[in-house]
Amino acid sequence: MPKQRAHGDGGLYWSESRQRWIAEITIGYTPAGRRITRKAAGRTKTEAKTKLKEVLRDHEDGLAIAPANYTVADAVNYWLDNGLPGREPATVEMYRTYAKTHLLPELGKRKLRDLRRRCGPMVATQRTISVPVHSRSFTTC
Predict the structure, then answer these.
(1) Which residues in 76-99 are b (16+ Cβ under 10 Å) and which e?
(2) pTM score, two decimals?
(3) pLDDT, tens digit, for every residue of 38-51?
(4) I want to staple 87 with a disulfide (CB 3.0 to 4.6 A). Which of 45, 83, 91, 137 is the partner?
């Protein structure tokens, strides 16, 4: 008898058209009642199951599920272009300057998924960056 997965653990199935195992999990519902799902694919069932666990862990940790190649620079530039409606032009320019001079040179090429609040113990060669925009500090690893 096949083992059933527990509620909230997602599902695994074989996609004949893609010739891949598909792992799918429901992470919530829209206000209209439609399911919000995330999918991951793998050549083997084990690979798909590993990716499913990774997506589930990221969701439980409260991380937004971003594409694997989405960088900090992409997120900052998107926020600067779309996330500041109604702000004074001087404020927007100040944020752009802070991002360009402090944040992007240090963290811009890092993958957003790999960035953590603290990445282990501080090493003498690591640098802590304080950006006044959010008054948070991140450690580069």
Answers:
(1) beeeeeeeeeeeeeeeeeebeeeb
(2) 0.47
(3) 888 999 999 998 98
(4) 91
